[in-house]
Amino acid sequence: MAFPTRRGLLTWLTLATLALSGTTWGAPFVPESFAVPASAEGEGFRLVPLGPAVTEIDYRAYMSSIEHLQTTFTHSTRWPNKDLGLAEAATDMAQEAARFESRRAFAYAVLTPDGQRERGCIYIRPSLKVGFDAVVRLWVTEAEYAAGFDSALERWTRTWVRDQWPFDPQRVAWPDRGLPWSTWQALEEKP
C-alpha cells in the first residue's frame, strides 16, 4: 500500500488503528460547546487551519525539509518523500479540512505574519493510547529548526493548549517532546 498523502504514515496508521479497534472518526473530539480556535497568533507567526487555501505553501514547506522531517517528526522515510506531488498534497489538505470542520482532529499551518511562508504545523488529535485524551505533535522546517523556532513554538503551543483547549493537561501527550518516541509507541492502545 502506498502512503501518498502529506501526513502519509501518521494519517494511515491513525485511521488503520481506529478501523481495527472499532473506533471511528464519527464522534467529535471536543465538546460541541467548545469554540475551536479558527486562528491564533504568536510572536512572529499566526495559525490557520490546514486546508485547500494553504496547500501550496504547506507543500513547499515540507518539501524543503524532507530528511529533517523524516527524522524529527514522522520517524519514517514514507513522509515526506521526493515523489509526493501537489495533487496528493491537495487531497490531504481536503482531508485535514474535513476533519477540522467535523471537530474530529485539528491541524494548523504555522505561517509568517504576512501568510506568505509556512514555518511549520501543529496537530491536535485524539489519543489512541491509554492514559491520554489528546496528542499534540508539531514540526518546523529545517531552516526554522536551525534558527531555534522549534523550541519557541513548542513553548507557545504548550501554553496555548493548556489555556485555550478543553483538555486536562495531564492527559495530553507530547511525543518526542518530553515523552520519548519509543515510549509513546510502546504504550498500550485504547480498546
Q: Would you kindly provide a written description of the structure presented here, covering whatever features stand out?
A:
With 191 residues, this protein is an alpha+beta fold. The protein is built from seven helices and six strands; from the N terminus they run αββαααβββααβα. A six-stranded mixed beta sheet has the order 1-2-3-4-5-6, with helices on both faces. Strand 1 (40-42) and strand 2 form a beta hairpin. Helix 2 crosses helix 4 (86-101). The protein is globular and about 35 Å long. The model is unreliable at 1-25 (pLDDT under 50).
Quickly give the structural class. Answer: alpha+beta
Q: Report how far the terminal alpha carbons are from each other.
A: 25 Å
Average pLDDT score = 88
Counting H and I runs of at least 4 residues, what is the number of helices? 7
The unreliable regions are 1-25
General shape:
globular
Largest sheet: 6 strands, mixed
Work out the strand percent.
15-25%
What is the string of helix and strand elements?
Answer: HEEHHHEEEHHEH
The tally of beta strands, per DSSP, is: 6
Rounded to the nearest angstrom, the radius of gyration is 16 Å
Main sheet: strand order: 1-2-3-4-5-6
